[in-house]
Design goal:
With about 120 residues, this protein is an alpha+beta fold. The chain has two helices and five strands, in the order ααβββββ. Helix content is about 15%, strand content about 35%. The radius of gyration is 20 Å and the shape is globular.
Length: about 120
């Protein structure tokens, strides 16, 4: 068996049995896309699916997986899946960093679909 065929067989086997492959990791370095960091910027010019990183506090729970977030100057509604919360408890005084995307639906105020919550020390 040639080296090329052996490599293809190994790759096919790895994919078939579901072993995680390093090539599936995501790039986490700098981006050419500007990441918004203030609630005022989002409220002023909401762009659907725009990546955002905000620091502040989660003021209160509004409904299932919906919360009110403040960066200290402005407030915006956020959506956080239960599985995306850190293991440590968070209250309205806990400073956090949230990362996610703007969701701008027609005739609704923008909100942030949060993908990651980190507690700031």
């Amino acid at each position: 068996m040639s080296h090329f065929n052996a490599s293809r067989l190994i790759i096919a086997t790895v994919l078939a049995i579901g072993i995680p492959v390093a090539a599936l990791a995501q790039y986490v370095g700098p981006s050419s896309q500007k990441v918004t960091t203030t609630v005022a910027d989002i409220l002023k010019n909401p762009v659907d699916d725009q990546e955002v990183m905000l620091r502040g506090v989660i003021l209160k729970k509004i409904s299932k997986e919906k919360y009110l977030f403040s960066d200290g100057k402005n407030e915006i509604r956020i959506e956080i899946d239960d599985r995306d919360f850190p293991a440590q408890a968070i209250d309205e005084t806990t400073r956090v960093e949230i990362r996610g995307e703007v969701e701008k639906e027609f005739m609704e105020s923008p909100e942030i679909d949060v993908k990651m919550v980190s507690i700031l020390r």
